Amino acid sequence: MALVRPDKKLETVEVHSVMKKWKTKELPRAVDRTQIAQCETKLSIPLHEFIALTLSAMQEHHAELGFVMNI
Known about the structure:
Layout: H1 15-22, H2 33-37, H3 39-42, H4 47-60, H5 62-65
Helix pairs in contact: 1-4
């Protein structure tokens, strides 16, 4: 998701942007939607909240995850 942003920064990705892509075929093929959607049944967390939690954690640790872009 970060790579399609104009600034190419994970820090600027927002939950509504991910949710918008969730409904399209534009998410990377490696994303297993079925597994992610299980957060609602197995964890009792609505999908948008799960994505918010995950995105927040990724943004806090973006450098460790390799999301540093020098463009």
